[in-house]
Write a structure and sequence with these properties.
The protein has helices spanning about 10-20, 25-30, 40-55, 75-90, 95-105, 110-115, 120-125, and strands spanning about 25, 55-60, 65-70. By secondary structure, it is mainly α. The chain has a 3-stranded antiparallel beta sheet with strand order 1-3-2. A hairpin with a 2-residue loop joins strand 2 and strand 3. Helix 1 crosses helix 3 and helix 2 crosses helix 3 (about 40-55).
Length: about 130
């Protein structure tokens, strides 16, 4: 995936496409909770921006409605975000986690839960594996 920068609003629309699959702008608008509803043209603009950025693609037209589907999956997008985030910390996961601890975003309880949930990565490292979770 190339360096795709999405606004919060664009990400929210993309999340709806991941949830619903192939659909129209109107279907996306109607799928949003009442408190997140905006004008149809706003959603339409966001959808076309996502298409220009390569996150969505047109698949067909039914009447006047264009149907779009995601071009990237949620995992690919998250991996890109994580790489960008790590880049902010010089590529150091330790600095990232340290910052999360300092700001209270991550607690020691969270760290302990992660540590107990990841014994398989330790065992694969000790067997000479790459240790990817």
């Amino acid at each position: 995936m190339n360096k795709m920068r999405l606004s919060k609003a664009e990400t929210r629309i993309l999340e709806q496409y991941w949830k619903l699959g192939t659909c129209s702008v109107r279907e996306i608008l109607e799928s949003l909770p009442e408190d997140e509803r905006v004008a149809y043209t706003t959603v339409q603009t966001l959808v076309y921006r996502l298409e220009q950025k390569g996150a969505l693609r047109k698949v067909k037209k039914i009447g006047n409605a264009q149907l779009f589907e995601p071009s990237i999956n949620q995992s690919e997008y998250r991996i890109g975000l994580m790489r960008d985030l790590l880049d902010l910390f010089g590529g150091s996961p330790r600095l990232l986690v340290s910052n999360l601890l300092e700001t209270g975003t991550l607690t020691l309880k969270d760290l302990r839960a992660l540590q107990t949930a990841a014994p398989s990565s330790k065992s694969s490292r000790s067997r000479g594996g790459k240790g990817y979770a």
